[in-house]
Amino acid sequence: MSDATAKTAAPLDEVMLAMDVVDTLRHRQDLVTRELDGSAREAQLIERLREIYRQQGIEVPDHILREGVEALAQSRFAYDSPAPGLKTSLARLYVSRQRWGRPVVFALGAILALGVGYFGVYQPIAANRAHQEQVELTEGLPAQMDALYQTIFDETKVQQAVVEADALVKRGKAFAAEGNRTGAEDVITDLTALRDRLRQEYVVQVVNRSGEQSGFWTFPEINTDATNYYLVVEARDPDGNVLSLPILNEETGQTETVSVWGQRVPESVYNAVAADKRDDGIIQANEVGRKSDGFLDLEYLMPVLDGALTQW
């Protein structure tokens, strides 16, 4: 190595030595405390440092030892943590991005997906559904009411059906205008039932089967001195199928849907039917009434009284 090279490297060696002196002082805090905080002078501290290096086989010039002591006092070659602040926080956040970056990106992606799903898919579908429901309530249901009314008007043979249908339509449209879907739908159900009632065809006849009653009598609870007479009847459609009809029980005041019930009749009718059955076991005149298409009520073919029983 040339002299020029050695001279160029010397300052770096001296800096390294000075840094080593500072490092030694930092690791020997007991030495610093005794010498600097006590009454000993700087020369004594330098002498002690020189002794430490001699024990290691290193000769350190006095000016290097002096620079090391001064550097320690001035905190040179020491790392000072940056003061807290926004820039410091952002820098630390950036440096640690490998640790938090992937979870944050995943979370942001999930939030974005949820946002797109909610605002881009769910809300438009919900808004469209709400719009369709509103259109159905204000236009669709009233149109169904009008159609049912027209059918009833065309098929009925009695004015009563038209009057009932008209009242139902007015009430149903009022419900629709108020936004009352349940009320409007209930009216459509009632109109449908009225139409179906008009279309029904059946015959009410006395039950005439082996082992079954064709009639009975009771003492009413409100007047035990009186006797009520009933014929056991059923309704059959044109194909002979037994129908279930809503019947008001005069004793309970409840309407029940039954296939067999007791129709109250005058005593004379009851006795005539009983005699007819006793004659040959078959009731010849067994038709009590007939319900025809286009009519609401049953047309009775024999005298009957108001009142019926569903249980006896």
From TrEMBL:
The identity of this protein, by name, is Uncharacterized protein
The record ties this protein, via Pfam families, to: DUF6384
TM ranges are: 104-122
Q: Which organism is it from?
A: Devosia soli
Q: Which UniProt keywords apply?
A: Membrane, Transmembrane, Transmembrane helix
